[in-house]
């Protein structure tokens, strides 16, 4: 049997989904490739070596095996687990919102250094106590849209929150479900 070629990259897990009984699909925004979708085989087994390392909003170095369909996670080395973010509801709500925007507005693997630095910095800031999350959210939305080549919310002028949400949802091609969490956390 031929061995699959392995490559390494670092990235932040922006979404996970169960696949079959034991596998997990993972969407990662990476430094070297942009947004990629990978498969972690048997990651949900109790004794899996990857089990605790494949959580949303984990910044890690990934070893990935190239395959014909979807690349496979072979190893993970956590760089930053963002523990403060995971333990504070408002920060977590913001992280889910950012990750949904990233997942819906970036179609596929296209490396962009500006987007990578913005995403990494956003998660680093969300992992710090005492930050103004509403301000961080607005700055992230505007810079993210600017880097993707869309008119920013600031450029669009005075709009209601609903008009801004509709604009983002139109760009995303559908509902942004995590937006409701921002309201529950006092950040809409």
Description:
The chain folds into two domains: 6-80, Beta Barrel (OB fold (Dihydrolipoamide Acetyltransferase, E2P)); 83-184, no CATH class. The mean pLDDT is 85. It has a five-stranded mixed beta barrel with strand order 1-2-3-5-4. It has helices spanning 83-86, 89-105, 113-126, 133-148, 161-172, 179-184, and strands at residues 6-19, 23-30, 34-40, 59-65, 71-80. By secondary structure, the chain is of the alpha+beta class. Helix 2 (89-105) packs parallel to helix 4 and helix 3 (113-126) packs antiparallel against helix 4 (133-148). The radius of gyration is 17 Å and the shape is globular. The chain contains six helices and five strands. Strand 4 (59-65) and strand 5 form a beta hairpin. Helices cover 37% and strands 24% of the residues.
Provide a quick synopsis of the model.
This protein has 188 residues and is an alpha+beta fold.
Q: Please state the CA-atom Rg, rounded to the nearest Å.
A: 17 Å
Strand tally is 5
- Strand coverage percent: 15-25%
Low-pLDDT stretches are none
Q: What is the residue-mean pLDDT, rounded to a whole number?
A: 85
What does the largest sheet look like? 5 strands, mixed, barrel
């Amino acid at each position: 049997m031929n061995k699959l070629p392995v490559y390494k990259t670092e990235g932040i897990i922006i979404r996970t989904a169960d696949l079959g009984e034991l596998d997990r699909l993972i969407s990662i925004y990476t430094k070297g490739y942009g947004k990629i979708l990978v498969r972690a085989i048997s990651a949900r087994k109790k004794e899996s070596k990857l089990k605790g390392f494949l959580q949303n909003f984990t910044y890690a170095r990934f070893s990935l095996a190239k395959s014909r369909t979807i690349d496979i996670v072979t190893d993970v080395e956590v760089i930053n687990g963002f523990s403060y973010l995971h333990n504070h509801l408002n920060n977590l709500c913001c992280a889910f919102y950012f990750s949904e925007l990233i997942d819906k507005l970036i179609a596929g693997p296209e490396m962009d250094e500006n987007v990578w630095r913005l995403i990494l910095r956003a998660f680093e800031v969300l992992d710090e106590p005492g930050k103004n999350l509403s301000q961080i959210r607005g700055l992230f939305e505007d810079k993210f849209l600017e880097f993707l080549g869309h008119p920013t919310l600031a450029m669009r002028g005075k709009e209601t929150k609903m008009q801004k949400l509709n604009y983002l949802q139109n760009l995303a091609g559908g509902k942004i479900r995590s937006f409701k969490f921002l309201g529950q956390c006092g950040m809409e």
